[in-house]
Write a structure and sequence with these properties.
Two copies of one chain form a homodimer. By secondary structure, chain A is α/β, with parallel strands linked by helices. Chain A has two domains: about 60 residues, Winged helix-like DNA-binding domain superfamily/Winged helix DNA-binding domain (Arc Repressor Mutant, subunit A, Orthogonal Bundle), CATH 1.10.10; about 90 residues, Rossmann fold (3-Layer(aba) Sandwich), CATH 3.40.50.720. Chain A is about 45% helix and about 10% strand. In chain A, the strands form two sheets. In chain A, strands 3-4-5-6 form a four-stranded parallel sheet, covered by helices on one side. Chain A is globular. Chains A and B meet through helix 1, helix 2, helix 5, strand 5 and strand 6 of A and helix 1, helix 2, helix 5, strand 5 and strand 6 of B. Chain A binds a DNA duplex (24 and 24 nucleotides) through helix 3.
DNA sequence: TAGATTGTTAATCGATTAACAATC
DNA sequence: TAGATTGTTAATCGATTAACAATC
């Protein structure tokens, strides 16, 4: 979240940022930003805030987004296309459809560690299990299906349906005030 | 999360479910499920677990997903299409492109409370602000852009880029064991 | 009655908030 | 030196876990 904002700020030519400004962009409080960042190191200059570039680089290192990561995307439908568009910011060319065994072989020999599951919902579990078998350790599940995560694997599920149910519960209701 | 699983179970014809089984599907523990559910009511039968249908209905009521909710989707690109596909489970027909003022008028007069922002990233903030002005109280932001949420509005941002950065940090690294 | 499983209470843990000393 | 802002410590809060009594 902070990293995203820092990238935006740097692109906009901003040099210096205070914890409160960063907080505002992220809908949190200034002390929360400082507490979070200081878990890793002292990135700021007391009395002056943070150097945007320096903080972006350091946070990138912490998140390990500096070094390129090989990832495999399983699925051919609209979710797959939407994911590619969302990550690359543009349409990505060059696809071919291969049997899963072939894909698994490539994943294994190239030591791919990250996976995105964009299959039909009913195939999500099987796909994650298969990816785990060939060495994938982190999976983003955008299939809409549920997944029990095998040991040794981190699974993050992103589903518009789930997000919508959460919103439906969290939406402010007239006359009801919720703390936090 | 629980509601999603219950819908799947009911579709599969399952009548009864124990907290541990529900937990397994959601990658949590049985006592967590019981603690969560009992925040709202006593849905279960001691010694026998939960009736899938009864629990689904009750949880649906809590989440307010039973009553249909009017929502407005702003945006015409692939994110918008992908969202529709993800929610409806199929392609949805019947679109027309209207000036935003017209859309705002319709939102206001139909008292639409939910919004999905699938514009280009740079327009997300402006769109959320405009929706707030015409009475929207909950927004799902799938634009890829950042949004500061105006008061009185709940914003949930879903971004593949963000999810990927999180995974990149959480992914198990050889030799490092993390608690939790 | 015996066995199973919920719902609740108490204990633990971690995350957020508040306050402020350190220091640029 | 004065003002601003970080990083840290202590206090608060809420969420998770553990244990078990209640009861179907």
């Amino acid at each position: 979240m902070y990293h995203d904002v820092l990238v935006r700020l740097e692109d906009a030519g901003v040099r210096r940022v205070r914890s409160q400004e960063l907080a505002r962009e992220c809908n949190v409080r200034g002390d929360r930003v400082r507490a979070d960042l200081s878990r890793f190191d002292r990135f700021g200059i007391v009395g002056h805030g943070y150097d945007v570039h320096v903080l972006r680089i350091n946070l990138g290192r912490v998140l390990r987004v500096q070094t390129p990561r090989k990832a495999v995307l399983i699925g051919t439908g609209a979710s797959a296309e939407a994911f590619l568009l969302g990550v690359a910011g543009r349409m990505v060319g060059g696809r071919s459809v291969e049997p899963f065994d072939v894909v698994a072989g490539v994943v294994q020999s190239l030591r791919v560690r990250f996976g995105v599951v964009a299959t039909e919902p009913g195939w999500a579990q099987e796909t994650v299990d298969a990816l785990q078998m060939v060495g994938v350790v982190a999976v983003l599940n955008v299939s809409g299906g549920g997944v029990r995560c095998p040991s040794g694997v981190v699974v993050e599920t992103a589903s518009p349906m789930l997000s919508f149910k959460r919103l439906s519960f969290l939406a402010p209701r007239r006359g009801v005030r919720v703390s936090g």
